[in-house]
Amino acid sequence: MTDLVYLYDGSFDGLLCCVFDSYTKKEVLTAIYSDEDFAPSLFATRTVVTDTAHARRVYRSLVRISPTVGPFLRRCHLTCLEEKELYMYRFVRKLYRLGPPLLRSLTDETYLPLLRAVRHLEHEVELLRGFVRFSELSGVLGGEIEPKNRVLPLLRSHFCSRYQNERLFLYDRTHREALFYADGRSEILPLEHFQMAGPDETEARYRTLWKRFYDTIAIRERENPRLRMTHMPKRYWNTMTEFQGPAYFRAQSSPADVRSPGAPGGTPGLGTPPAPLPPAPGSAPYKSAGES
Amino acid sequence: MDVLEKLTILTDAAKYDAACTSSGSRRSFRKGHIGNTTSSVAGCCHSFSADGRCVTLLKVLLTNCCVYDCKYCVNRRSNDTRRAAFTPEELAELTIGFYRRNYIEGLFLSSGVLRSPDYTTELMIRALTILRTTYCFNGYIHAKTIPGTSPELVTALGLLADRLSVNIELPSEAGLKTLAPDKTKAAILAPMGQIRQQWTANRQELVKYRHAPKFAPAGQSTQLIVGATQDTDLHILSLTQGLYDRYQLKRVFFSAYVPVVEHALLPSRDTKPPLLREHRLYQADWLLRFYGFRAEELLDERNPDFNPLVDPKCSWALAHLDFFPVEVNSADLETLLRVPGIGPTSARRILVARRVGSLGHDDLKKLGVVMKRAQYFITCRGKVADGLRFTPDSVLRGLIAAERPSLPQPEMEQLSLFTPAFGA
């Protein structure tokens, strides 16, 4: 048996096809890469073509072992675990061999890394449900996040049902994709570049109100920055209203400013486009005060 | 006065209220409405303020005008502060504006007593009605019940809010008499009893009629101030347990007293809030709610206060060394929960994992057990951890050292080479 590297298209189905191919072709893998993050190596590589029928067969065989495996693997695929594909592949192989008891051995060395990664993902989703900040931009709610894991698929149902009468989008800067929602339909689409428009009068006012509320609610005698950082790690602060510089709270004076050219490259592929996508004005909200 | 200024005054007046949770309600979206409370089965924190406390709800007073004169309170009538009041419309608009931007999970509405408890509650009901009907707000609302409000108004409030709370504030009748002369124990407990009764009745109603209007679906909570009076931890914890047992409260909050006023009956202004004591009480509160402990196990007449050096669970374990060691591979859930370093999550994981094979010390670490604490109290397959030798004294020292990094540190004193004392 030789060392072999599989390349797949990065989708969940594609990964299941890797499992399928490795069994039908009787090949044991040393690595699985998605097309994007593959650097050429000395090993022999094979590009796996995604076949939905194959993927479904693998999925069904897994769900037959336990109904929890399917959703678990889907979540694994959203995590930021290094070489998650290989971990998942090994886990699946072991699962075929050992059956349901593997799911109870929470200390198993192939299962534990995935369990930890999924816990990390779920924790991040939990935090972001609260830490996402929307801005109202000409009637559309827009927000940005910088998560480590791909959280949008898990945040989707939460925000779409909470703001079901609104139109909204949420941009994931790390993975360059955005969630769009309008009129009961939602979609997650890749979006290369995106810059938030500056606030109008009302928006700037609400930002100021929130900042004031946030600053006032703290009790000075109990100040405890370390505790705050434990609950709310600093990497989330970047996209939160209460930690922005003064420029963030200043309204763009003329409407021309808000509606300047340079729409983002992405396309809202919904039947009913969710929004006249907020265009990118000269001043990005996250730059320092001096730039606007 | 504009809304920004009002918000500042009324937030500042509300900040000493500890309760800021959005848990316990499970209401999915409704067509044409904004918001849901499904995410908040376990609560959802939207931010954390500089003191490390969670910000979930827009916590404000409707007004900080008050006819009462409770000595410990910033809003008492004899205090010379700026007064303000939201109109119900302003408050509703502000809440929706914040909610849409995902700043908050809902509204926490409390109020000073304007004219009379009934009048104030009517104002609150009006604000909440506007929010619920005009703005179709379907998110979380926590409303404060003012002692002395008539039962009909409490009912009306409960039908609008997810959670109600009545603050006990002072843990004893004597404390109330001296510091809050306008309040009595009976007046505080009356609405609490009523809420419990209606809440239970409503549960039964909901079984019969799915669409019966819900009365305070997330139950009720209360708050006790710690450190304003001479009450012991034992007294406070027994009271807490009584409230959980008899009034079926969802939460009891503790609030370390922050000296806001100079008064002969109160601790002086430069006393630090007793944060460690508050922390110990919360730890004990968790033991009551999730670990199956009883107040009388943790404290008794001889030790009426918590040990500041070790947490209540460790201190219980040290006093009951005959209970240990616990064999992890055979102990039941209740016994596992008694071991310091094992919590509900890791205990359940142990139960699952040991069905496949017996667990060793390394496995426990992988399951999330805090071995720094647990190692002294457990055996795996009949053995203690390799190379671990200890005496009761060294266990105590080990446990103190294990907790120290997570406690608020005593303030460092700035050393100076040239202190005035030297010169003199």
Give the topology.
The complex is a heterodimer of chains A (292) and B (424).
Chain A: E1 4-8, H1 12-24, E2 31-34, E3 44-47, H2 52-65, H3 69-78, H4 84-98, H5 101-104, H6 112-131, E4 134-137, E5 140-145, H7 152-162, E6 167-172, E7 177-182, E8 185-190, H8 201-217, H9 225-231, H10 255-258
Parallel strand pairs in A: 1-2, 1-3, 5-6
Antiparallel strand pairs in A: 4-5, 6-7, 7-8
Helix pairs in contact in A: 1-2, 3-6
Chain B: H1 3-14, E1 47-48, E2 54-55, E3 57-61, H2 88-100, E4 106-110, H3 117-134, E5 140-144, H4 151-160, E6 163-165, H5 173-179, H6 185-208, E7 220-226, H7 233-247, E8 251-256, H8 275-290, H9 295-298, H10 312-319, E9 326-327, H11 333-337, H12 344-353, H13 361-366, H14 371-374, E10 378-379, H15 392-403, H16 420-423
Parallel strand pairs in B: 3-4, 4-5, 5-6, 6-7, 7-8, 9-10
Antiparallel strand pairs in B: 1-2
Helix pairs in contact in B: 2-3, 3-4, 4-6, 7-8
Characterise the protein shown here.
The complex is a heterodimer of chains A (292) and B (424). Chain A is an alpha/beta fold. Chain A has two domains: 118 residues, no CATH class; 160 residues, no CATH class. Chain A contains ten helices and eight strands. In chain A, strand 7 and strand 8 form a beta hairpin. With 424 residues, chain B is of the alpha/beta class. Chain B has two domains: 219 residues, TIM Barrel (Alpha-Beta Barrel), CATH 3.20.20; 93 residues, no CATH class. Chain B has a six-stranded parallel β-sheet with strand order 3-4-5-6-7-8. A two-stranded antiparallel ribbon of chain B has the order 1-2. In chain B, strands 9-10 form a two-stranded parallel ribbon. In chain B, helix 3 links the parallel strand 4 and strand 5. In chain B, helix 3 runs parallel beside helix 4 and helix 4 crosses helix 6. The model of chain B has no long low-confidence stretch (mean pLDDT 89). At the A-B interface, helix 6, strand 4, helix 7, helix 8 and helix 9 of A face helix 1, strand 1, strand 2, helix 2 and helix 12 of B.
